[in-house]
Amino acid sequence: AGGDDEARKAQRMARNRRAAATSRARKKEHLESLQAQVDRLLSENAALRRRLSDAGLSTADGGGGAAEDPGAAKGSGAGGPGGADAHEAADAELGLGVGLVA
Question: Residue 16 to residues 2, 7, 91: CA-CA distances in angstroms?
Fold first, then answer.
């Protein structure tokens, strides 16, 4: 009886290890998919900010909160301090991945 219990326990542990490995692989694929989506959206966002800048429109976020970079509200464009690059860098630093264009 003790040998049967040990065998069942070993089988259960092996099954659990396989399930855990499958779960980790699924999670890794999901994270890679999300990262690809973030990269695509950041690229799209940068392109849209460039189009706005080329059209002479501001790329500042429309929130109007006190925490905003004052340089962004002055339409400094993509290259200046507080521009699209600064927003994307801040978003990336915060783990947000996507800055919104208002």
Answer: 21, 14, 38
pTM: 0.49
Long-range contacts of 33-40 (CB under 8 A, 24+ apart): 38/97, 38/98
Measured from the Cβ of residue 88, the count of other Cβ atoms closer than 10 Å reads 20
pLDDT digits (tens, 9 = 90+) for 48-71: 999 999 998 866 665 444 444 444
* Residues 6+ positions from 102 with CB-CB distance below 8 Å: 60, 61, 62, 63
CA 92 to chain centroid, in Å, comes to 7
- Scanning the chain, the segments in alpha helix (DSSP H) are 2-54, 70-73, 84-94
CA distance linking residue 82 with residue 14, whole number of Å: 54
Q: Letter for the amino acid at 59?
A: T
